[in-house]
Design brief:
This protein is an alpha/beta fold and 182 residues long. It has a single domain, classed as Rossmann fold. Helices cover 31% and strands 16% of the residues. Strand 2, helix 2 and strand 3 form a beta-alpha-beta unit. The two termini are 18 Å apart.
Length: 182
């Protein structure tokens, strides 16, 4: 079986947007003009590939269901991400909570379907995100959770916390080495 790193998209791969300056709630970009990749993440992702991890993006995009954006915009964003980074596959949940789907985080449906398709061992895999929904989805899938700490996610629990993605390969390599030496 393969090992994987499951990455949230907004806040981990690309910048989030704050539409109202009085709120701390981050949201996904709604246009290519708002979309920008986070700097300094290509090298950490390449390092994870060198450690022989499959890389997947698992992202909730409820603005599709709300009619704010359409699938074609999300496809454009995902094409940019796939072109820039060594991502094996991107999964998108276009639903809102009321839809009750199994793919919307904090449920683990996207992770588990990727694990089945790609023969992934979730117990030896990781989820990196910036929200409680991400951490909960990772836990439900049986993966180790890593929170990318931001000013808007204080108090979110995770197995590990990092300040930036450049720290992730070292942490994952250390945990993976310990697991293999058991």
């Amino acid at each position: 079986m393969h090992k994987a790193v499951f990455l949230d998209r907004d806040g981990v791969i690309n910048e989030v947007i704050f539409r109202n300056e009085n709120t701390l709630k981050p949201i996904a970009p709604w246009s290519m003009e708002e979309f920008s990749l986070l700097s300094g993440i290509k090298c950490p992702l390449l390092n994870l590939k060198k450690l022989e991890f499959k890389l997947f993006v698992v992202t909730n995009q409820p603005d599709i269901a709300k009619g704010v954006i359409d699938h074609s915009f999300v496809t454009k964003v995902n094409e940019v991400i796939s072109r820039e980074f060594p991502i094996d596959e991107i999964r998108v949940c276009p639903h809102v909570d009321l839809d009750g789907c199994e793919c919307r985080k904090p449920k683990s449906g996207m992770i588990l379907s990727l694990a089945k398709k790609w023969d992934i061992d979730c117990q030896n895999s990781f989820l990196i995100g910036d929200s409680w929904r991400d951490m909960e989805a990772g836990k439900k899938a049986g993966s180790t959770t890593i929170l990318l700490e931001k000013h808007y996610n204080r108090g979110v629990e995770a197995d590990y916390k990092i300040n930036n993605l450049s720290q992730v390969a070292g942490i994952i390599n250390k945990i993976d080495s310990c697991r293999q030496s058991r």
